[in-house]
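User: If only I could read backbone structure tokens as easily as an amino acid sequence. Underneath my words sits a plain record pairing an amino acid chain with its backbone structure tokens. This is the protein in question:
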Amino acid sequence: MPAHANQWLVYTGGDRPNRTFTVIDEDYISPEFNSDTSFKVEAATIYEAPSQPDWSTANYHVDCIKKTLRIDLVQISPRDGALRRGPDVADHPPANVTEHQIITFACDKGPKKSSQRASEREANNDPRNFIYLGPISLPKVVDVAWEKLWTDGKRPGYSSNVSIADQNAQVEKIMKEKQALVAQAGAIAEQSQREADAIAASQKSRKDRLKREKEVAPALEEWIGKSEAEVTAAFGPPASSSDRGALRALVYRRTHSETYDAQVGQVGKTAYYEKRENQFHCDLTFGFRNGILEDYFTEGDRCQILWAPR
């Protein structure tokens, strides 16, 4: 089965017999790692001139802020031989109209959700003259250029001993390999993002703990890493507990009373007072994972006093 893709015509131009026809495969648009302003797209260009290759494909890494692009994984299909690799190109401003259109397409489609892209495919009325060709394979894209657009010219023949059918089969093989690479890259990017999120969460947890060390209850830090048995032996039975799989929470409460003189009346210049009491409490939650204290949390008033060493 051919490897079909959602192909968009992004540029066609030039004078006969040097016209070109460039498409971008929407399925391969992806953000660069940790960026929402840089995107990778895969573009294919078909050439009319017999002195040019039949077609070439490449990955374009587009920076939408700088309006630059970098090119790699260049594949060239000459008319007189088998596929070969082309050289990579470092970051540069667009060198021609084709590259300008590639940047415009990548920066327009890249930030959009798949549902929005799908609606734009269906409407197919882009104001920048991007034309949705449909879910077709690269060999069919080459046919479209010659059968629908360059009808006033003659498609150059092949001088290679590799048949067109064999070349098309090689193209399909390359596209399937790229699909596998894209899936692998996506999985790596997702894993990297998960690791980055875990590091950020760990850093936040550490920051919160350092704040508690300073402001809440420094003496509690020494219990991190202790077993539940050690904690309950020191703190006694908790006020409440809860379990969720490998996680277990024990809640303790301590109270603190403060008395003060409250004025209750006045006769002449004489004020009358009585003793009153304010009561404060602080709940301490110990969080255990697999029986080991992983973290703790305090909530209430006077926590630094209530949970200081006794």
User: Anything to note?
Assistant: The first strand starts at residue 5 and ends at 13.
